Amino acid sequence: MSTPDAEAWAEALTMYERRYSYVLVGPRDHEDWVRDVAAVMRRETADPRSWKWIDVDEGEEERLEDPFFPFVLPPSDPEEAVAWQKGLRAVPRTSVERLLVMLSTTWLNVPSERAHNDFETHRPELERKARVILSRFPVETSFHTNAGYPGARTGSHTDPPDFYEAITGCTPLSQYDWDLGLIAVSGTELGLFWSFDAT
Could you tell me whether strands 169-170 and 89-91 are parallel, antiparallel, or unpaired per DSSP bridges? Predict the structure, then answer.
């Protein structure tokens, strides 16, 4: 798939507009990309292409009181930042489409979505939009998630993770107890795709 334009990108992001989600993309300015994650969480940067963001709490009371809300910033100390990064798991590109779709579901759980929201009817359109989002990031991009899946902690899962299966846990990166997301790290950009259970 060719790289999307601003219109195609904005249309693809509509998959996240019906739930509490963020989509933020900033420039890759540091060798240590955790510093770029912090800059995006602080909204110190803007999309390098001036494309659409989803920042659902912009202007809300919580944001005025805490400019990082709802995120908890990664530590600035290098050793602590390494420990923070260990809470993330590398994800192969082949699994990212389904991860992006899962992040758009009501329960952040595809089995529940199948049981209650007629997932299979919406699936082709969600997957099409996920492919548009993924096409922004070149093949050398690395992907990282805080989502748990079978064998993630022990490294015993030999097959690529399938995010249409039940999520087994998470390492929260926000002020909420349950959040799931994706960090895309290319040579020039960093994308943050994050969804929250704010109940």
Answer: unpaired
Q: How far apart, in whole angstroms, are the C-alpha atoms of residue 149 and residue 170?
A: 9
- Cα torsion 192, 98, 109, 89: sign: negative
Q: How many CB atoms lie within 10 A of CB 116?
A: 12
CA distance 189 to 100: 17
Residue 195 pLDDT exceeds 90: yes
Q: Is 76 exposed, middle or buried (0-12, 13-18, 19+ CB in 10 A)?
A: exposed
Determine how β-strand 178-185 pairs with β-strand 169-170: unpaired
**CA separation for the pair 185, 198 (Å, rounded):** 26
- Which pTM does this prediction carry? 0.94
**Three-class secondary structure of residue 86 per DSSP:** coil
Instruction: Calculate mean pLDDT across residues 93-99.
Output: 97
